[in-house]
Design a protein that fits this description.
The complex is a heterodimer of chains A (237) and B (106). The radius of gyration of chain A is 19 Å and the shape is globular. A three-stranded mixed sheet of chain A has the order 6-5-7. In chain A, strands 1-2 form a two-stranded antiparallel sheet. Chain A is mainly alpha-helical and 237 residues long. Chain A has eleven helices and seven strands. The relative contact order of chain A is 0.19. In chain A, helix 3 crosses helix 7 and helix 8 packs across helix 11. By secondary structure, chain B is mainly beta. Chain B has one domain: Immunoglobulins (Immunoglobulin-like). Chain B contains no helices and eight strands. Chain B is elongated. The chains are: A mainly alpha (237), B mainly beta (106). Chains A and B meet through helix 3 of A and strand 1 and strand 3 of B.
Chain lengths: 237, 106
């Protein structure tokens, strides 16, 4: 009897568990052959335009005067963000604009420069540190029901990945390729913009650009995706 | 702003069919969308892409409002002689971009 009661309680816990490392899949794996080809095209893929802009900005803004050649100095950097810099948890975009605050969040220039920096770590495994208490805060955000639809991130991305939502596959929400060129946006976009999409979908409260809550969530998602290969700048449908 | 990329094989055999890929950075605003205040956003698209091979036109495309942003246009041609391929995009609001690529035919 006791065992039966225990089993009843165990079942929902098992469903809501985190995805085991062997079953983790990048959003790339859920895409069509054609969209994969766009991401794999490193010469005329849509994100290439942004990389060329970013390379030009690297020189124009004077990044090179401290950091030298980005291909050497920025290698592996994007795999370690979000991380604590000067006592504050920052994501890659926030760190990229630390000496260029004129670059607004989600502006074309900031996305291009971030994409260029992130590109130097393409193919390298994600390697963030489990910074506390921000990691637990991000995890709590992921599992917290919110919005008028009263849904948690985990209910789609942990419990129901691989199924369809309005005809589209539900991915596992591993941020392996940001900033991304999203076909729906017809443009480059940040992870914060992608968060806004989901928060709109569940009709939840939005956060200001650069809000610590979103950086904490990013940290949890990157920790959850640790060891997966960075694809930045990726293409998503 | 007017960033364009072309991909032409550097070398080809005479008579070989080669693939040419072109990418132009452009918002391709349709002219049918409105702002949140209801004002029409004016059309801003690329209208044509013309490619010449040693001065001879080998490819021309007309673009229309349904084409996605940052259009990628791919086509094939026959490698006839060494020389230069010139690409010219023109569009609304005086948009114009050119790019060239050389090919060696052996």
């Amino acid at each position: 009897m006791k065992a039966a009661v225990l089993a009843v309680f165990l079942v929902p816990i098992a469903v809501a568990a985190e995805i085991p490392p062997a079953e983790r899949r990048s959003g790339y794996d859920f895409m069509s052959r054609e969209t994969r080809a766009m991401q794999d095209d490193e010469v005329t893929g849509p994100a290439v335009l942004s990389l060329l802009d970013g390379e030009a900005l690297w020189g124009k803004l004077g990044c090179a005067s401290c950091h030298g050649d980005a291909k050497a100095s920025m290698r592996g950097v994007a795999t370690r963000y979000p991380k604590v810099m000067d006592g504050k948890l920052v994501n890659l975009e926030q760190q990229v604009r630390h000496k260029a605050p004129q670059l607004a969040y989600e502006s074309r220039d900031l996305l291009s420069l971030t994409a260029y920096v992130a590109r130097q770590s393409k193919g390298m495994p994600i390697d963030v540190q489990p910074v506390q208490p921000q990691l637990d805060a991000g995890k709590a955000f992921f599992f917290r029901r919110q919005g008028q639809l009263d849904l948690a991130c985990s209910q789609c991305h942990d419990d129901n990945w691989g199924k369809k939502l309005a005809g589209n596959p539900i991915p596992q929400a591993h941020p392996t390729g940001y900033p991304i060129y999203r076909l729906e946006w017809q443009n480059m976009g940040s992870l914060a913009r992608r968060f806004r999409n989901c928060l709109t979908g569940i009709r939840a409260q939005q956060y200001a650009p650069g809000a610590p809550e979103l950086v904490e969530l990013e940290l949890y998602l990157m920790w959850r995706a640790r060891g997966m290969k960075l694809e930045s700048p990726a293409v998503r449908p | 702003m007017a960033r364009v990329v072309v991909n032409v094989p550097a070398e080809a055999k005479k008579g070989e069919v080669i693939e040419i890929r072109t990418l132009a950075g452009h918002p391709m605003e349709t002219g049918f969308r409105r702002t949140q205040l209801g004002e029409l956003i004016p059309r801003d698209i690329i209208r044509t892409l013309v490619c010449t091979y040693n001065g001879v036109e080998i490819f021309r495309a007309d673009l229309h409002p349904a084409v996605a942003a940052n259009p990628l246009i791919t086509f094939n041609t026959v490698a006839t002689e060494s020389g230069t391929l010139e690409f010219r995009w023109t569009g609304d609001n005086g948009y114009s971009a050119t790019q060239s690529a050389t090919i060696k035919v052996v």
